[in-house]
Amino acid sequence: MDLSAESFGVAPRRNMGMLEEMPLSLDPEDVIAEFEAMTRDAGRVQIETLKKILEENGRTEYLQRWGLDGRTDPESYKSCVPLVTHEDLEPYINRIVDGDDSSILTGNPITTISLSSGTTRGMPKFVPFNDELMESTMQIYKTSYSFRNREFPIGNGKCLQLIYGSRQFKTKGGLAAGTATTNVYRNPLFKRTMKAMQSPCCSPEEVIFGPDFHQSLYCHLLCGLIQREEVQVISSTFAHSIVHAFRTFEQDWEELCTDIREGVLSSRISVPSVRTAMSKLLKPNPELADLIYNKCQGLSNWYGLIPELFPKTRYIYGIMTGSMEPYLKKLRHYAGELPLLSADYGSSEGWIGVNVNPKLPPEMATFAVLPNIGYFEFFPLRQSLDGLEAKPVGLAEVKAGEEYEVIVTSFAGLYRYRLGDVVKVKGFHNSTPELQFICRRNLLLTINIDKNTEKDLQLAVEGAAKVLAENKLEVVDFTSRIDSSTEPGHYVIFWEISGEASDEVLEECCNCLDESFLDAGYISSRKVKAIGALELRIVKRGTFHKILDHYVGLGAAVSQFKTPRCVGPTNNKVLQILCNNVVKSYSSTAF
Ligand code: AMP
Question: How far, in Å, CA of 314 to CA of 576, rounded?
């Protein structure tokens, strides 16, 4: 078998214009066979992939700077080219953004820029986007679809895709810029692939790309309801969008029914292009309106809402891992008995792994690294026993059970780029690692010797939320910050909750949060009062929507939105939104 990178379709450069209208054929068994062959020899495919990337881009200013001199083997590459973060590459990326079309990071000029969601530092960051990234995105989609389809086959139908394009604009240098998801949704290959995957979107493009996401969300729901008999899958990029959509449904369902009954779109939809597109779909249908109305009235606390509204749904699909885990409980509530299938692992910088075990519950989801879409290294996070600085290892050298930070070399101009994500190797699919997403590396609550990650915070919130659950309440969303204005500094946790809780209950939650951080540094610091009492601040209903709106205003896409779980001291706007909406505050008495 030919195991060259080319034989696995490494970055084929194609004429997109000619392909636009051609039907795309997709045989899931072929896709799986290709994936199996490639992962059986993952180490070798990685070497081929690196070679290809360096051959295409070896003459760029960036790679020339590091003196590779045409060498393409991993050893030379690793010894010449340094590990970098986004900050290191910013001067190069900024020149591209400003219109310098010389070979800076890539052999072929970059014409499109992605804005990564940038939820951590409060501002989106720019990363290059090109045809190769588009191709690998489709390869990931097709691979996971093929595995999913083995377990949960779907026929011809529709997908209620809760997706939103963000604003696209031209940079100073004339490049198209938008979030990575927007760049993907706008590409003709996306629609063709969705069709081939029997998952065309219920909503017209005017809705997906509407300028006001509240209006788009309303119309997505309406489109889904009108075509309820055809909907087989409910999906979004990140699960937050699905939960957000059905929480909104709880508010707007009667208005949606009225629109269906009368065949007239609510006046809340003010964007002319969206109104025109929707009016083509909406016809008076009192029977459907009554049916939906009665179904909603028959539900208890909206349990099982999704299968009730969309009876042919086979599963719910989206990224449900990492910072999405806190939404799983609510999603399960809406989903009733329907399976939740967790989607793949990637970023604006490029894709990494594909979920080939769709039957596993989201909490156990893993991602098999696709060895032909980039060159991957893994920085070990466990201190080496000899005290020497650990070195990144290749894909074929990782060990099951160990945690690593992912380092990416892509076809879009990133070389040894620290992604900042922590993953754990759970096992292997053939010879490629299956990764479990753990957390963002830099999301850390720390005051002195304490170190709590996003995951630690999530577990603490989960623990304390049980106290609320006993009172039939839930945490709608949460975030945190370090308050160093007090002496000593302390953790502040912000909660939006689903209803009114008594002071007693919230005091108990606050203590429970404080006790749930199990990091030894935290506990010992709390005991000697080197860290002050944890504070729980309850914010008004809707506060986290305001935060979402704020990020959308900055150019982020709802599709890629992740609530920042720790708000940095410079993220003034989000801090202001939080602080202006605090209704109650509690201090822990646990220590
Ligand atoms: P973005 O900045 O929008 O490109 O988001 C990329 C980041 O989202 C990644 O670096 C991860 O931290 C997170 N992410 C992407 N896919 C997953 C996944 N399947 N599970 C958990 N987190 C993910």
Answer: 42
Encoded amino acid at 344, one letter: D
CA of 442 to the centre of ligand 1 (A): 13
Residues forming a β-bridge with 477:
496
**571 in contact with ligand 1, CB cutoff 6 A:** no
Q: Is 563 in the pocket of ligand 1 (CB under 6 A)?
A: no
| Residues 307, 296: Cα–Cα separation, whole Å | 11
Angle, alpha carbons 192-30-129 (nearest 5°): 45
Q: With a 6 A CB cut-off, is 319 part of the ligand 1 pocket?
A: yes
Check residue 22 and give its pLDDT. Answer: 62
pLDDT of residue 182: 85
Question: Separation of 2 CA from ligand 1 center, angstroms?
Answer: 33
Give the bridge partners for 342, in sequence order: 318
Per-residue model confidence as pLDDT tens digits over 405-438? 999 999 999 999 999 999 999 999 999 999 999 9
CA 448 to chain centre: 31
Q: According to the model, what pLDDT value does residue 118 have?
A: 57
8-state DSSP, 442: T
Residues 6+ apart with CB under 8 A from 520: none
Ligand 1 mutation target, pool 355, 437, 558, most atoms within 8 A of CB? 437
The phi and psi torsions of 478 (rounded to 5 degrees) equal -155, 160
d(CA 433, CA 400) in angstroms, rounded, equals 8
Q: What is the DSSP letter of 84?
A: B
Give 139: exposed, middle or buried? Use CB within 10 Å, 0-12, 13-18, 19+. buried
- Rounded-to-integer distance, Cα 141 and Cα 195, Å: 12
Quickly tell me which residue has 């101009």 as its tokens: 413
pLDDT digits (tens, 9 = 90+) for 488-510: 999 999 999 999 999 999 999 99
Residue 478 near residue 495, CB atoms below 8 Å: yes
Q: Which residue puts its alpha carbon closest to atom 7 of ligand 1? A: 347
Residue with tokens 């990416």: 408
Ligand 1 centroid vs 345 CA: distance in angstroms?
6
Tokens standing for 514? Answer: 């404080």
- Cα-to-centroid distance, 420 and ligand 1 (Å): 10
Residue closest by Cα to atom 8 of ligand 1: 347
* Residue owning tokens 């079309």: 101
Q: How far is the CA of 423 from the centre of ligand 1 (A)?
A: 11
Return the H-helix or E-strand segment holding 144: helix 131-151
